[in-house]
Hints:
- With 304 residues, this protein is α/β, with parallel strands linked by helices.
- The protein has one domain (2-295): NAD(P)-binding Rossmann-like Domain (Rossmann fold, 3-Layer(aba) Sandwich).
- The protein is built from twelve helices and 14 strands.
- It has a seven-stranded parallel sheet, sandwiched between helices.
- The longest helix is centred in the C-terminal third of the chain and has 14 residues, at 198-211.
- The radius of gyration is 19 Å and the shape is globular.
Amino acid sequence: MKIFLTGATGYIGGSVAARLIGDGHAVRGLVRSETRADQVREHGLEPVIGSLDDAAVLTAAAGEADAVINAASADHTGAVEAILSGLAGSGKAFVHTSGSSIVGTRAGGEAVDDIYEDDTPLTPSPARAARVALNETIVAAAGRGVRTAIIAPSLIYGLGRGVERHSMQVPWLIALARKSGVARHVGPGGNIWSNVHIDDLVELYALALEKAPAGAFYYAENGEHSMREVCVAISRMLGQGGRTEAMSLDEAAGEWGEGPANDTMGSNSRVRAVRARQELGWSPAAPSLIEEIERGCYAAGTVG
């Protein structure tokens, strides 16, 4: 197939592109500059110069493709509408990337019990209300003759295969532990995030592209850990003896910004990928987050 991909230089997009190219598909990737164009050419993609604000570029590229994957932004309504305009009435696939933070609970490092399956009703935080509304628009676009599917990854870990090789949460925690001499978490670190290895996530994109029904929504996870458990593993990996230390939300905001401190590093996001397993036959098999930290790519020094 001819596939148009946004986020071609990103962690998710680049990894998905590598898989699709390996499967024999021709992938065109949206990039902002000639420098980025050269980078994606080195990875086997054909560059399309433009940005998410270039509606005409997006509509044209979508119309020329057999399928479209948006891995650039979970929140850019204009880009989504432009892509849907190019695909309307075609029956072609559009796989959009959201995120499990739509069910995130600001908790200052405390655990919560709420767990969400793909069809569990949710009331998003104000920070994620627009994202949920966009997801609803995409699901409804199945009525416009587009085979839409949404993938909402949880915390992603592992070594990517594109220009960008890592996600943010684990590298942020590793960098802070190195700087501080001790692994640090928000509050008691009891807050829990589901997680998924990038290799397993890439497999889910391939399956969704192939056979997801129109209007599908899938969480992506294969386990969960508290932030304290993650920090203990980081501490052991760095030779810090498994010691961890609490930090305040203000300190976390100083490190990562107010939004990430509250909505990512100190929050809970607990989901179950029931539909992907049952409907698409997704069977994640990559190493767990703790294994990857202690004996995998992070222990091998691929971060910082």
